[in-house]
Write a structure and sequence with these properties.
Blueprint lengths: L2 H17 L6 E6 L2 E7 L2 H4 L6 H13 L8 E6 L3 H10 L3 E6 L6 H5 L10 E4 L3 H16 L1
Parallel strand pairs: 3-4, 4-5
Antiparallel strand pairs: 1-2, 1-3
Helix pairs in contact: 1-6
């Protein structure tokens, strides 16, 4: 299976968030070409500011493995992780992160700058399905402003 396939799965999670009137961000955690955690934003539904897609996907993966470390896993997420999620990803020691669109307003780079907040061994890639991911977020906020 490919990065494109797993990012499409993250986009499906983002659509679930969109259907529930949440900011449309989705994430999947993959290990050995198998999805071991899924998540989409549930901040409004759970009344919990930490219920980001990444956090929910990470928790599902930890529970699946019975472990707090994800060194051999990859997180696919539709939008650049925020600084809170970056901290959780750091502590998980996740092996790789692939995100779609950059988040200039709330992404980790706004706080961290060029210094990576992730574990030193974590590989980072961006831009995969970035246009699709950003379009969903922009449409969501445009609809809310009407």
């Amino acid at each position: 299976m490919s990065d494109e396939y797993f990012m499409q799965q993250a986009l499906k999670e983002a659509k679930k968030a969109q259907e529930k009137r949440e900011v449309p961000i989705g994430a999947v955690v993959v290990m050995n070409e198998q999805i071991i955690g899924r998540g989409y934003n549930q901040v409004e539904m759970l009344n919990d500011c930490t219920a980001h897609a990444e956090m929910i996907a990470l928790t599902a993966a930890f529970n699946y493995l019975g472990s707090k470390y994800l060194m051999d896993a990859t997180l696919y997420v539709t939008l650049e992780p925020c600084f809170m999620c970056a901290g959780a990803l750091y502590w998980s020691k996740i092996g790789r992160i692939v995100y779609g669109a950059e988040d200039e307003k709330n992404g980790y780079r706004r706080v961290a700058g060029e210094r990576s907040p992730f574990h030193p061994k974590t590989k980072l890639e961006s831009g995969l399905y970035g246009e699709e991911s950003l379009k969903m977020v922009k449409e969501f906020f445009a609809a809310r402003r009407k």
